[in-house]
Amino acid sequence: MLHLYYHPRSTFSRRVRVALLEKQIEHEATVVDMATGEHRKPAFLLLNPYGRVPVIDDDGFVLDESAAILSYLESTRPQPPLVPTSSQGKALVDMHLRLCDGQMAKSIGIIIFPKRFLPAERWDLAAMAQAKGEIEKHLIMVERALQGREYLVGDAFSLADPAYLPLLQFLALTESQSGEYNIRDLNLACEFFASKLRLMYLAARVWLAHCRADN
Ligand SMILES: N[C@@H](CCC(=O)N[C@@H](CS)C(=O)NCC(=O)O)C(=O)O
Predict the structure, then answer these.
(1) Last-in-domain residue among 33, 61, 81
(2) What pLDDT was estimated at residue 131?
(3) Which of 9, 18, 64, 104 could form a cystine bridge with 48, CB 3.0-4.6 A?
(4) CA-CA distance, 198 to 215, in Å (whole number)?
(5) Helix, strand, coil share (%) of the chain residues, nearest 5
(6) Rounded to the nearest whole angstrom, what is the distance from the C-alpha of residue 148 to the centroid of ligand 1?
């Protein structure tokens, strides 16, 4: 049986939980209590020396890195498919997964970490402005991908969608500008992503699962 180690409020765990829900994969789950530093204790470091969630253990095969986990779930549980069959579709999903992490998530982190956890006088404004520029560059690519289409890749929900989903709530905090949108709140962030209805539906399901896990 597949086992997921996660935290309900972990952005990257939510990606994996969306894919598990979408594919209706039977699994067990353990909440890693990050508030008490469980992710830095030897038992968890044996699973992931970086001390990060999510991690899966699939009958002894242990894997971390949410994008790698999404790809692994796709190849081991292909139904329903979350990657198109065409070479171009596969390559585009791969591109989104890489760029979403390497460009967008990284830059969002540079802005939201100080905004959430540091007093304004300790913010590195130059680094934050540069990160905002990087996000806006990335949004041009996303906007092109969504032009006249409902989903990021092809005409169906793919792994590219859950990759972005948990970042939406933070995108608002970056106050990025893209075309007519100054993305200051979650509604605008969702409006920007044309697949919003589908994303919000999944977000609601993940939120529900999160509430259940908390109780
Ligand atoms: N690139 C990793 C990032 C995972 C990550 O940063 N997880 C956070 C929670 S959202 C974490 O465990 N942070 C703990 C730490 O870095 O000490 C992935 O995609 O899985």
Answers:
(1) 81
(2) 95
(3) 64
(4) 26
(5) 60, 10, 25
(6) 33
Residues with CB under 6 A from ligand 1: 10-12, 39, 51-54, 65-67
40 Cα nearest atom in ligand 1: 17
CB 53 within 8 A of CB 13: yes
- Which residue's structure tokens are 């993305």? 183
Distance of alpha carbon 2 from alpha carbon 160, whole angstroms: 22
| pLDDT tens string 98-144 | 999 988 899 999 999 999 899 999 999 999 999 999 988 888 888 78
pTM for the model: 0.82
Q: Which residues contact 198 (CB under 8 A, 6 or more apart)?
A: 150, 151, 157, 161
Q: Is residue 213 part of a domain?
A: no
Decide which of 55, 81, 107 is a domain's last residue.
81
Residues in the chain: 215
* Contact assessment for residue 89 and residue 153, using Cβ atoms and an 8 Å cutoff: yes
